[in-house]
Design a protein that fits this description.
Elements: H1 2-17, H2 24-46, E1 47-48, E2 51-53, H3 56-74, H4 81-100, E3 105-107, H5 114-146, H6 156-163, H7 168-200, H8 209-230, H9 236-263
Antiparallel strand pairs: 1-2, 2-3
Helix pairs in contact: 1-2, 1-4, 2-3, 3-4, 3-5, 3-9, 4-6, 5-7, 5-9, 7-8, 8-9
């Protein structure tokens, strides 16, 4: 079932990506169907008998799944045709990724009640901050476009997509909504991780690279929000902190899972 739902979701995403803007209503409905099918494929990817299967591919697929939801909601208020062309093809690729890299199972036998909730909150935090990082990269391209770096005719399709995006200030407001939500979820992840570790290991943290990188990411996003609130940070500073925090989180979760699952064929749990 995973293969069928993943293939269908990918096909629908590709179709949605190339529906003209004047057919926004039908495209919006089709993207909602694609999102639901993608969600079903994630369910089959994660479900595994008496446990969970949460690998790096599932994490990336879930991140794009949340991204499509945000796009669908925001497209009701803004014209996001340019973002659609950039986002949906990537969502199609990520919908297929768990087929090739299913990950290793994590059993729930002997785990506390907190454990699956910790996994879910961590996945949501990662997904939301992935959206923020993707959004920040789009803003970098948009800023370059506004500074007249568009003379290369080989990139005319990208310029056309960027010109359809909302104003840069609107994009920045959306970015901070995403970062704020992601920071709250990441804080809950750290807190639930502390509780889980104390229940099972008897210590607050297991001081490995995953913990340190997660805390570094949490600190960077916290500093960013504080700087925005009290110093009015904008522009390149905002983008640098957003991307820096995301890279730290990427190395903590996806990077470690990729090395263990794909290169070493071991489970992270």
């Amino acid at each position: 079932m995973l293969i069928y739902f993943s293939l269908l979701a990918a096909a629908l995403y590709v179709l949605c990506a190339f529906i003209p803007g004047q057919r926004r209503l039908s495209g919006s409905g089709l993207s909602a169907v694609a999102w639901l099918v993608h969600g079903a494929s994630l369910w089959f990817a994660v479900s595994h008998f008496d446990g969970l299967r949460v690998g790096f591919a599932v994490m990336l697929s879930a991140a794009l799944w949340i991204s499509v939801l945000v796009y669908w909601l925001e497209s009701r208020n803004f014209s996001l045709d340019g973002l659609k062309v950039l986002l949906l093809p990537n969502a199609a690729v990520m919908a297929l990724l768990p087929i090739f890299f299913p990950g290793l199972p994590i059993t729930l036998i002997g785990k506390t009640v907190m454990f699956p909730w910790h996994i879910v909150v961590a996945l949501l935090a990662y997904s939301t901050l992935t959206i923020a990082a993707f959004h920040a990269l789009v803003m970098v391209l948009q800023d370059m476009h506004l500074h007249k770096i568009r003379n290369n005719q080989n990139q005319h399709w990208l310029n056309t997509a960027i010109e359809r995006l909302p104003a840069l200030m609107t994009m920045e407001k959306i970015l901070f909504r995403l970062v704020s939500l992601g920071f709250v979820l990441l804080s809950l992840t750290v807190l639930s991780g502390v509780i889980f570790s104390e229940q099972v290991l008897g210590v607050a943290f297991k001081w490995d690279h995953k913990t340190l990188l997660s805390l570094l990411s949490w600190a960077l996003f916290g500093i960013l929000l504080a700087g925005r609130q009290w110093r009015g940070w904008r522009g390149k500073t905002v983008l640098s902190f957003t991307l820096g925090g995301f890279i730290a989180l990427l190395m903590a979760y996806v990077g470690s899972r990729f090395v263990l699952e794909v290169l070493l064929h071991r489970s992270l749990a």
